[in-house]
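FIELD: query
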Amino acid sequence: MGDYRVFCVSLVVFLLFLGNGVNCEDPYRFITWKITYGDIYPLGVKQQGILINGQFPGPQIDAVTNENLIISVYNYLREPFLISWNGIQQRRNSWQDGVYGTNCPIPPGKNFTYALQVKDQIGSFFYFPSLGFHKAAGAFGGIRIWSRPRIPVPFPPPAGDFTVLAGDWYKRNHYQLRRILDGGHNLPFPDGLLINGRGWNGYTFTVDPGKTYRFRISNVGLTTSINFRIQGHKMKLVEVEGSHTLQNTYSDLDIHLGQSYSVLVTADQPAKDYYIVVSSRFTKPVLTTTAILHYSNSWQRVSGPIPGGPTTQIDWSLNQARSFRWNLTASGPRPNPQGSYHYGLIKTSRTITLANSGPIINRKQRYAVNGVSYIPADTPLKIADYFNIPGVFSLGSMPSSPSWGNAYLQTAVMPANFREFIEIVFQNWEDTVQSWHIDGHSFFVVGMDGGQWTPASRARYNLRDTVARCTTQVYPKSWTAIYMALDNVGMWNIRSENWARQYLGQQFYLRVYSPAHSWRDELPIPKNALLCGRARGRHTRPL
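FIELD: result
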């Protein structure tokens, strides 16, 4: 479980330390990170990377359901910095989400301590730098949330547990990529693909013959869907972003931007080395990279052609996505079966339709949702909301259905009520695959298909056993529909996981509001919260 010190401290001591409310009954893990620049050579070319404790990718985070993570981040860069936590729901606590809509950046030479609780969660996720285009320089890493000892897991303990962080990569540094985007242009085609920060055959996973291993695979790339496969081996899918799945077997998996999957792989082949292959999807040309699956008793290196995979076939990917099903009898983070939550029997209170587009605004390439291209405010929205600072954003600035007028720039925020149960339809009229993420929540992917969504499309919804997750794809000229319980008060980012599109405006914030203003619904502002913009000079709260 790593080198973290795990113990419980009293709530009084913790309040003195941070001024934040987290449950004392659950253990604490204290982690210290130093963020620095450093030389990396992921594609054989020297680049300036962003390292965490000297590592690229960053250190693995391990936690058990409900544990508290106290992560002190020291910023030794020459620029402001933030870390966000893809898939960690931050229950009642969007103050810790680590995106610019909720947090002031950590200034150069300063530090900030995050206080997270992985409340009622299990599964495979990752963290990443959320400001500017830092994600193109590193500072990402895996997160594993383990089940509590008494909670049954629907498969025997594997002999080992591997994290696979895969995605596209550029030889240009993040400053150059950002200048391209700021100049009103889209990014060029990526230069290659990485597996755990390495290029061709640069990383090795060692297994013992006859044993079964868990691989947690995340697409941490910037612009490209990927396909993952292991030469000569089958993969049994067991978990998707915190949901235990029906254990179907696959020869390869499509993994879209921001998504995470867990598979079991048994070392049941003749003892030698095998290719682990990652290739790009829906691109021309097709990018490919490899790692090595090494049998511990093997003296034979990888050989033969690299196993091929799907390239531009959309129907193949759509049918595979529809085959992912919730394991209704398995426990999740709690002992009760996942299927005891009957999402398909809950009446939705409203339908929100979100359509992506790529407009030209002020003679520059932008991306938009419902005709609104997001621009950051001078003050984080959550902090402005807490202090009632006028003029930072306006509720209702994000329409709940597509606009047919000209696209425009706006700090877009959509209001929503705590405990609503809503339907969201992602409509993609473009010819590229979209990948959408929602912070603070998981949702049920009830349907996806080609063409225009209409109310009649609901007849094809899966209302029984679709997976709950936090990131979903939308295929070209297609739609994806989700059901989501707004059970988490806060200011939550809804964004494209294509980092160029996110940077150029394909995102907004959902303000989930409770009039009770109770600590039962939302934790208070942390005592150590950084204040910037129009909130500079104000005070958080006394101890």
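FIELD: remark
Residues 200 and 290 are 5 Å apart (CA to CA).
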